[in-house]
Each structure stands twice: as structure tokens, then as C-alpha cells.
Amino acid sequence: MPAFTVNRGYPYPLGSDPADVPGALQSLAEAIDDDVCAFQDTIANRPAARFVGTGPFASVSPTHPVNSPPTPYTDRIPFNVEVFNTANIVMMSEAVGYRLIWPQDPGFYFAVVTVSIPQLTLAATTDYLGLQVRRGDGTNPTSLVPAPRLAGTSNPVGSGPQGRILSLGLGAFMNGTTDAFSVEFRAATNPAVSEYVIGDRSITILKMTES
Amino acid sequence: MPANTPRGYTYPLYSDPIDPAAQIQDFAQDVDADVQGLANTVAAVLNADSARVSASANQNILVNTPTFVTWAVEEYDNAAMVNLGVNNDRITFTETGIYLVHAEVNFAPNGNATVGGRSGQIVQNLSTQTASHVTPGIQNTAVEWAATDLIQVNTIGDFVRVQVRHNSGAALNIDARSFSATKVSA
Predict the structure, then answer these.
(1) Does A195 lie in the same domain as A100?
(2) Do A110 and A169 belong to one domain?
(3) Are residues B114 and B150 in the same domain?
(4) Domain count, chain B
């Protein structure tokens, strides 16, 4: 009856076991092999994920409460393609109405969001473009609240070219049960328009801690 | 007398007495301890030193006055990098290395006709400026300033702060804001 090492559980024979050196060495070698292979996987990759949204998306008038800044046009940005995902993060489907990126494991995450915003083709001037990342609730994906603000960036456009690329990075703890990244686009135009079309967008996430 | 590999794994020599069970056990335990040590090291790396602070209450920023942003809520800190009771304006590093730092601040509008710009910078220790930029203000709309940077920490006890400034025609407040650091390399 072999015994096992205290940390990794490798088998080794006891003096009272029948003498079977090849068998004992094979069992030990295979246990070490399995363990080192699994271990190698954890060394090679910090958990990470990237999701993109392709094609235009028309952000419509906001119906959910936001605190600051005031936002004439706000909506959660949809992502439709999982580029890679070793971090056990769920991209919630468009079918649920809102687009949450939901880490399934607790930890501190660093995320970078980038959104391409073409020049507005409607007869209006863009005064302001903004991007916010909020903490949505993955268990209640169609709810608009609560969604506390995690970070934001904005760009007063003024009289220059109206197209922009907005990028925003942030670090935050996500609890692995409800917390989900929610990306929101904001714009103000003069005169007001009914929708604002954005282009390709991405969110790239690194998992920085194991809890 | 058994010998050892460079990593310390024990193996018998031909001159040693034949005792397979004990020799295999010795070898297994050596590998076990070594791999567990590596696993502990990797776990430490995967648990990168990280901290995030935030605040939402107004902080008044006077005209043309560089002001360090203060923080009220310690949202996460796995490496004793934040002590708001001692210093409420900084993240202090407890290990050397390369850190990914983000900061963002919401400037509330003040309605002043002299709109001016809104600026901020991540400041390492007492003077070293890292990421910074200026964005135009808007008279009646909030402006969100954000920056991300990688910084090198050479000395335990180094710290980072966020400094903001504006040149509107009157003082204004910052409200929602956050600041984080996470270690990405030794």
C-alpha cells in the first residue's frame, strides 16, 4: 500500500510493500509528469481575455440612471466576438439585452477598453464624447441598476474633427459572483440626435490576483 | 552515501545498500518539496500586488492650483499599499517592480464662462511626473480625465499620487474618481 508525499501527493512504496521497483517508479514518474504539466500551464499564462464588437452599433437615448456627467445619449456597448479567453470570463449574449463581460472567478482585474467613434454623419455637431466602465450585475443582466461607475474618460470635441478613438484603463476587484464589466458610450450633440453610431470596440482583461 | 542533483533530488549510488522503498520515498519527497516551492512562487506571482482606492465626495480645486487628489474608500489592497488613515492621497509600494497604474477623475462643471482646461498627472514620489495630459473643459458638462501608465518602483516605500489642475474662471469640484496600481513584473 503506497504512501503519498504531503504537498503534491506523489506515490512512493513503503518497506512493507511487495518489491516492485519498476512499478513504483512508473507510478511516481507519471504522477510527477502529470503535476508538472498542469503546473506548466499555470506558469505559462496569466489568465486573460479579449472581446471585441465588430461593425457599427447605434447607441440610443439612455433610459438608465447615470450620475455624472449628464449624458444625452448613453448605452451599454455590445461585444460579439471572443478573441481569446483563458480567464473564465463570460461574454453575455446580446439576447439578454445588455452586454456584460462577467468574470466567473474573484480577483483583481485590469481592463482596457477602446472604442472607435467615426465622424457623425447626421446634421449635428458633436460637443462631447465619453466612455465609462461600470460594475453591472451578471445575475441580473437586463437590469439597468445598480451599475456603479468604475472609471470614465471624456473628450470635448469642439470644432475639430469629430471622429475619435477613446481608450480607458482601470483596475478593480470583481467578486466572481455578480460583478460584471459594463461599458457605456456617451455623446452630446447640437442639435440632439436620436442615435449615435460607434464603430469597432474592444475590451481586454488581465486577471491580476487569484482572489 | 546517496548523491543529489543540482535541485537537491536524492538518488542512490551503486555503492549504497539496496533499499528501493526508502530511496524512492526520499526521491519523491525531494521532488515534492521542490515542486511545491515552485508552486508557491508562481502563486505569489499570480497574486500580483494590487490596490484600488476611490472617492465620490466633492474635493474643491482652486484655479491654477496643482492639487493632490484625496481618496476615501480602500476598495482592494492585498499588499498593504494603502493606509488612508495615514496618507489619504497615495498608494505606497511595498515591493519593487513594474506597476501598471491607472487614475481617473471626474471634474464637475462650474458654469463659469471662462471654461479653461482640465489636467492631471500621475506623480511618483515627490516630483517625478509620469502620465499626464490636458483636456479642454466644458462650461456646463462634467469632464472625465483618465490616464494609465507603467512605472518602475526601485525602492520599497516609493509612492504615487494623482495631481490635478484647471484654469477655469472659478474653483470647481472633482467628485467621482478612482486610482489603482497592480504589479506586472519584478
Answers:
(1) yes
(2) yes
(3) yes
(4) 2
CB contact at 8 A, B109 and B140: yes
Q: Which of B18, B115, B148 to mutate to test the interface with A (most CBs of A within 10 A)?
A: B148
Could you report the average pLDDT of every consecutive run of 10 residues in chain A (211 residues)?
95 93 94 90 84 85 42 69 95 80 97 93 83 89 75 79 85 97 85 85 96 87
- Cβ–Cβ of B20/A13 closer than 8 Å? yes
- List residues bridging with A134 in a β-sheet: A149, A182
Domain that holds residue A82: 48-207
Residue type, A181: F
Q: Answer yes or no: is pLDDT of B35 > 70.
A: yes
Contact B179, B71 (CB under 8 A): yes
Contact of B55 with B104, CB cutoff 8 Å: no
* Whether residue B87 sits in one domain with residue B156: yes
The reply to whether A17 touches chain B by the CB within 8 Å rule is: yes
Residue B48, C-alpha cell as written in the block = 500580483
Give the residue numbers spanning the domain of B28. Answer: 3-46
